[in-house]
Task: structure prediction
Amino acid sequence: MSQAAMFAGCPARGATDAAGGEDGGVLQVLAGTKSYRLGESLVPGLRAANLHLRRGEFVAVQGPSGSGKSTLLQICGLLDRLDQGECRFAGVSVAGLDESALTGLRRQRIGFIFQSYNLIPVMSVADNVAYPLRLLGVAEREVALRVEAMLARVGLAGLAARRPDQLSGGQRQRVAVARALVKSPWLVIADEPTANLDSATAGQIIDLLGELAADRGATVLVATHDERMTRHCGRVCRMEDGVLP
Ligand code: ADP
Ligand code: MG
Result:
C-alpha cells in the first residue's frame, strides 16, 4: 500500500511517515466544536474538545451519557467534520480533504468497534473479517491467510463459517475486534465496546484489544463509562457537557 494511494487527493501527503505522523502524533483535535441541527434548534455535541493521541497509546474517554463521547469518536474516526476548531490526522488537517480522501483514510488507516458489533448479518465470520481487506483490493490469497491468522488470534478458528447470529455477544465482539485490526490500522476507534457484555467477557475483550493493538503498533481511542475498561488504559480523559479540556 503506497503512501500516495493512502492520501490520494490529499495535497499534504508528504507530511506523514509510514507509521502515523511525523511527530508520532496520530490524531489531534484542537478546540473542536460540533452541533447537531434538530428542527429549529442546535444541540451542542462538542463545545470545546481537545485531544492529542500519540502513536501506540491506548486512551479512554470517559463521561456521562450525552457528554459528547460518540460525537468526539465520530470526528476522530473521520466520519463527521467539526464546525470549528481543527482535526489533524497523521499531521494533516482533515478540513482540506474531500470525501473520497476521507473514505480512503478510513478504509486504510482506521478500524471501528461498536457497542452493537455492527457485523454484516448475511456474511460468515470469515467474510466479515475479510471485508475491510477486500475493500482495499488485497489479493484473495493474502486475504485468506490474514483472516485465518486473525481468527486464530482472537480464539475463533473453529467458527469461521458461522454467521453472526450463531455467536454469543462476546464472540461477536471478537469478530469485530478482528475486523478492526486485520488491516493493521493506525487508529482503532471503539465506542463503548463492552457495554453489552458481562463483566468477565468484557475483561477478555479489553485484554484482546490491548494486546492486538500493541502487536500492531495501533493507537486506540475508546469511549466508555466502564471502570474495568479504564484500568487497561494508558490515559483516561474525562469529558463533560461537550468539553474535553
Ligand atoms: P455520549 O456518546 O457521551 O452519550 P453523544 O456524543 O452521543 O454523547 O451526544 C452528545 C450530545 O449531542 C447529546 O446532547 C446528544 O443528544 C446530542 N446528539 C448526538 N447525536 C445527535 C444527533 N444525531 N442529532 C441531534 N443531537 C445529537
Ligand atoms: Mg455514545
